[in-house]
Structures are given as structure tokens and as C-alpha cells.
Amino acid sequence: MEEKLPEKFNNFYEKICLEYGKTLETNKNEIIKLKKKEVLMYILVVVLAIFTGVVYYNKILFILGIVAVIFCVGFGMYYMTEVMTKKEKLANFFKQEIISKLVKVVDNNLEYRKEADSTFLKKYREIEFLPYLYEDVSWHKDYIFGKCFDNVSIEMVNLSGTVGSGPRTKNETFRGLFVYFSFENKLKTSLKLNIDTLGMLKNTNDDNNVIDTSNIKELFKIESEDKELINKIFTNDVLNSIVKMYSKNKVKTQIVLNENSFYLKLFTGYILDLDYKNPLDKLTLYNYYSIIEFIINLSCKVNSNIKVKD
What we know:
Blueprint: H1 7-54, H2 59-106, E1 111-113, H3 118-126, E2 136-147, E3 153-163, E4 171-182, E5 191-195, H4 216-219, E6 222-223, H5 227-233, H6 236-249, E7 252-258, E8 261-267, H7 282-307
Antiparallel strand pairs: 1-2, 2-3, 3-4, 4-8, 5-6, 5-7, 7-8
Helix pairs in contact: 1-2, 2-7, 6-7
């Protein structure tokens, strides 16, 4: 059964199609034309190189062949540079005009910025996500932030996490969205949840699905000796939302709660990027929307559960 998309997303999609559809389509076609010219030039390079090799005994034809090869290589590089430049401009346009509006459809208090500052990135480096100790940030982009639930500031960024000290020994351990917010009630102990497979759970879209909480530590790989705290924070509602997210997207999830801080890693891979072949693909944009919405809803539920008095 096809998923029914939220009305506010459908309204957003219709609006951006009317406002930006023609611009994106025109730019896409320009990139395609330039790409075809680039390919044509390199095909001519191969043909002319073969021709030059065949007529090497004729000095004039040989020289003309060499000149023609150099000429075609030069134009091929020119078209390649033009394609890269136009792609970069189109990607920036997509982020600033469409992604920035998409996050506000999820929550009007959210803001979009191209990059996060170094202060926020330190939060990723300071926390221990198993099985690694402390990871570095290779690249980052798409910083989303704002005060959403109970006036709590939430931040998220699209980044690549790595371990290792040198270019040859550096390995990528994470690519996706990293999320952080702080809460008032300081926890006495830390909690860690690590989901890489939920195959034993029933795939369901039923919000009222009851999860057997007798073995949630093993099922959700939760690290903590405080069973009461686990049950308080990871309620059926919270676990259901995680299960639904995994069932739909097969996205590995890691959560760390330490003192008064919430850290979340969603292994989404590349996200919030422009599909040059289909810039306004509805399902792609909805996938971006639903992932950000999941993050906000999950964070809100966890924050509410932490505030509940024992």
C-alpha cells in the first residue's frame, strides 16, 4: 500500500514545483548539453589519436592530427569545468532555496545554514560512539538548528566521521546526520543505544504496536545498568518510532545520553543532496522531510520522558 504523504508536504512540493521547477529543469538541460559536448570531444580525441597513428608517415597529416587532438582535449577540459561549475551552482541553489524551506515545513523554528561552526563539531569529537573511541570530522555540511520542543535548542549536521591519524590510515566510520541537544535534568548514569539490525522485530507502521520490553536491552543493544532509567526513557512510543524508521529506511542508529546531553547518529549515507537527473523528485524530498521529522519527534519524546519525575 502506497504511503499517504502529509498535506503540508504536498503543499510545499506543489509550491516549489511552480516556483523553481522551470529554473531547475533549464539548468539540468544545460548541464546535459555540456556533458554531451564533453563526451563528444573525448570521442574525437580517441578517433583523431587513431587517425594520427595511422598517418604517422605523412608529416603534414601527422602534425594536423596532433594539433586536432590537443584542440579537442582543451575543449573537453573546458566543457568538463563548465559542467562542474554549473553543478556546484545548481547544488547551492537547491540547498538555499529548497532545503532551507523544507526544514521549515518540518518545524517553522528550524533554520538552515551551509555549514556548522567548529564549536558544534567539537560535540561530535567529545563523545564515545562504540565500537570506536573518539572520531574526527572529515567533512561537514547542511547545518540545521532551532528551538523546537519546549524551547529546547536542537542542532544537526550532515558529516563524515573518521578514525586514524594519516591519509592512508584514516577510515570513514560514519556518514549521515549527527544530532545534539541538551536537557535540564542531569542523568546519574549514561545510556547507549546501538541499532544496526532489527530483523527480529515486526516491521510495522502501527503506532500502537506493543514491543516486548522484557529484553529491550538485548534487542536494542542498550548499555546501562539502570533498568528503571532505560524503561523511563525508552518507552514503547520511543522504541516504536525507532522501529518504524528502521523498517522504512534500514538506517543504523546510535544514541548516547550522557549527563544532560543527547547525541544521535543516523547512518543515512549521503543525504540532502541534489539529484541532478531529477532535481524535484518527490519521493527523495519526502525522504529528507521524514528523516528530519523523525529526528525532531524522537528528540521531543526523549526530552519529555527525561523530564518525568521518578
